[in-house]
Amino acid sequence: MQSKLKLLKTLKYQLYELKIVVLKDAPIYFVKKLYVFCTLLLAGMLAACSVSPEDIKTSANGDVITDLRARGSGRAAPFDGTVDTKADLHDLLLTARGDASLDLHRGHDGIRNVLEAYLGISHDEMHIFMDQKGLNLAGICRHFGFDPENLVATLTASFTPFIDEGVENGVILKDEARNWTEQIRAEFSYRVYWEGK
Predict the structure, then answer these.
(1) How far apart are CA 64 and CA 147, in angstroms?
(2) Which end of the chain has a smaller Cβ tally under 10 Å, C or N?
(3) How far is residue 114 from each of residues 5, 11, 128, 156, 160, measured CA to CA in Å?
(4) Residue 53, Cα to own-chain centre: how many angstroms?
(5) Which helix (H) or strand (E) segment is 180 a member of?
(6) What is the mean pLDDT of the chain?
(7) Residue 21 reports pLDDT greater than 50
């Protein structure tokens, strides 16, 4: 099933390339019609190859990852990616908690790379677990036999560089960093165990 997902992603990318590169000199109405046709074709193929959570395999082992930095910023994340004011640290806390209006998803942009590395699955596969089985991040961990606390520790470690940046930039004192790290950990714990509205 993993290979089908990769094939479909490759097809989607090739369709995009076809639109940009090969058809750059074609009349615009032709390009639009071809792109709509190909998109509908791809949607049909995706429906025919629907993936269930039982088909998804992990490439990870559930160990804490300590050397991975989260992106931090993203569409649903108030944090801008740099800690140069105290407001940035508060935004970092909000980013760690996630956006409750997105229900189980809570907005993965700022931590997507960390979730994919820890869980050993793609972002799309994460959504399959959330949408089809109603699992939160802790539930996905348990599905693979991972300790959800290891995910909390991994996410916390991925935000530690931002707190260190706050110390380096004189936003907080070095002895305040531990308190901010604990707050980040609490927010990530809330997010990992969040059961929805």
Answers:
(1) 9
(2) C
(3) 21, 26, 18, 10, 13
(4) 17
(5) helix 177-193
(6) 82
(7) no
For residue 71, the model assigns a pLDDT of 82
Cα–Cα separations (whole angstroms), residue 36 to 6, 16, 95, 112: 21, 11, 36, 29
- Residue type for 144, please? F
Sign of CA dihedral 68, 74, 79, 83: positive
Kindly report whether the global pTM for this prediction surpasses the value 0.90.
no
Extract the tokens encoding 51.
């993936």
H-type alpha helices, 18-78: 28-48
Neighbouring CB atoms inside 10 A of 164's CB total 14
Please give the Cα distance from 120 to 94 (Å, whole number): 25
Contact 76, 102 (CB under 8 A): yes
Helices in 49-122 by DSSP H: which ranges?
86-97, 112-119
